[in-house]
Amino acid sequence: MTGKRIYLILQAALWTLLAALLIAGAVGLYREGMALRAAGDVAAPLFTRERVAGRLAKLAPLAGLALGLTLVGLALGVRDARRRPAACGKIPVRGEEPRRTARLRLVLLALAAAMIALGACNGGARDVLYKAVNICTECVGLG
């Protein structure tokens, strides 16, 4: 393996780890908020600035490292060979997409749809509607 390949793998692993930790933090905050509501504190907000800032502060060094690696890679011109078709001797055909990328896009689309459905079932659509109505009435001058 070349140094560029190792660098790209390390960078991808670091960003994947950061994304997984962010998702785990959001799920943890949600569970804590739901536990408060189950304990009888119905007015307890699920996400507060202080709780979110506390979770994000723990991830700041990892986010800084990932961002730094990305900036160093951009400055040094480290690129994946697959993005340079001339180097591989392949000429890209318009509209042709590898099966792996197509499957990944479908999985991500299904995951996004599932998360939207979960949010709607959890009452998120109602909250968004209330906020939209309040913003509209304030903008018009009725609120």
Task: Describe it.
By secondary structure, the chain is an all-alpha fold. It has a domain at 3-87. The chain has helices at residues 3-38, 49-76, 85-88, 99-121, 124-140. Helix 1 (3-38) packs antiparallel against helix 2 (49-76). It is elongated. The relative contact order is 0.07. The model has no long low-confidence stretch (mean pLDDT 79).
Short description:
The protein is an all-alpha fold. 76% of the residues lie in helices and 0% in strands.
List keywords for this structure.
5 helices; mainly alpha; 143 residues
Give the uncertain stretches in residue-range form.
Answer: none
Give the end-to-end Cα distance, rounded to a whole number of Å.
63 Å
Q: In percent, how helical is the residue content? A: over 70%
- Give the mean pLDDT: 79
How many runs of DSSP E, i.e. beta strands? 0
Q: Given the helix and strand composition, which structural class is it?
A: mainly alpha
Radius of gyration: 22 Å
Tell me the fraction of residues in β-strands, as a range. under 5%
What gross morphology would you assign? elongated
One letter per element, helices H and strands E, the order comes to HHHHH
The number of distinct helices, counting runs of at least 4 residues, comes to 5
Question: What order do the helices and strands come in, and which of them pair?
Answer:
Elements: H1 3-38, H2 49-76, H3 85-88, H4 99-121, H5 124-140
Helix pairs in contact: 1-2
